[in-house]
């Protein structure tokens, strides 16, 4: 009598920059303004100083974290978000908003190009939980966009002249809204934010041409 032997192989977990959602899935699932689920907390929180105002409903004891379903921290940003593709803003999600946060400031800069500014989105509501793909130009809940270093208001995707560049997505928790108008310059945003910054967290991406 033959006995069938069933061998159970352990599941292989893929980690690193190869992991994540495919470009097709991103295009299909993330091109809407549907809310994101809360991502797992990150350890890349960069606290500055503790807030003193009373907590809001959006506060959390988890680490302040910024993530994207389109790319992992330290990994390549898909071409669809660059000047070589559709040049739309990528989907983002945040969690662990610090106590006392009244507004959020999002900036995207290229540290390999002397801090070239690619995007400024200010006075984001902390309870949004994230931003959908392509939301630049139509930010929700009264948030506005500043001027980038291309001289445009809104998202300007990665577009290095050559080689690989890093892109820092920095989310800053503020104790008060900035109240600046659409198209404000980066220097004005930075100056106003300095006095109301509670904490910040960063997501890094790369892009090569």
Describe the structure.
A hairpin with a 5-residue loop joins strand 5 and strand 6. The chain has two helices and ten strands, in the order H-E-E-E-E-E-E-E-E-E-H-E. Strands 1, 3, 5, 6, 8, 9 and 10 form a seven-stranded mixed beta sheet that branches. The protein has a three-stranded antiparallel beta sheet with strand order 2-4-7, with no helix packed on it. The longest helix is centred in the last third of the chain and has 9 residues, at 186-194. It is globular. The protein has 209 residues and is mostly beta strands. Mean pLDDT is 81; it is low at 1-15 and 19-58.
Residue windows where pLDDT falls under 50 for at least 5 positions: 1-15, 19-58
Q: Biggest sheet, in brief? A: 7 strands, mixed
Mean pLDDT across all amino acids? 81
Count of DSSP H/I helices: 2
Which topology does CATH recognise?
Phosphatidylethanolamine-binding Protein
Number of domains: 1
Compute the CA-based radius of gyration. Answer: 19 Å
Second-tier CATH architecture:
Alpha-Beta Complex
**In CATH, what is the class?**
Alpha Beta
Helicity, in percent? under 10%
Distance from N terminus to C terminus (CA atoms, Å) equals 63 Å
CATH superfamily: PEBP-like
Strand segment count: 10
């Amino acid at each position: 009598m033959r006995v069938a032997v069933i061998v159970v192989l352990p599941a292989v977990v893929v980690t690193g920059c190869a992991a994540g959602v495919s470009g097709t899935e991103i295009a299909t699932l993330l091109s809407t303004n549907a809310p994101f689920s809360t991502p797992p907390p990150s350890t890349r929180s960069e606290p500055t100083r503790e807030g003193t105002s009373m907590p809001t409903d959006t506060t959390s004891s988890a680490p302040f974290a910024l993530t994207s379903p389109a790319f992992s921290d330290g990994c390549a940003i898909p071409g669809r978000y660059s000047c070589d593709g559709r040049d739309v803003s990528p989907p983002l999600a945040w969690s662990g908003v610090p106590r006392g946060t009244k507004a959020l400031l999002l900036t995207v800069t290229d540290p390999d190009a002397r801090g070239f500014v690619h995007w400024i989105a200010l006075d984001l509501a902390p309870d949004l939980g994230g931003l959908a793909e392509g939301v630049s130009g139509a930010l929700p809940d009264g948030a506005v966009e500043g001027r980038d270093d291309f001289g445009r208001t809104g998202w300007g995707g990665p577009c290095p002249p050559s080689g690989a560049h890093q892109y820092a997505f920095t989310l800053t928790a503020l104790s008060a809204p900035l109240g600046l108008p659409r198209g404000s310059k980066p220097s004005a945003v930075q100056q106003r934010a300095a006095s109301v910054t509670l904490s910040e967290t960063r997501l890094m991406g790369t892009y090569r041409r």
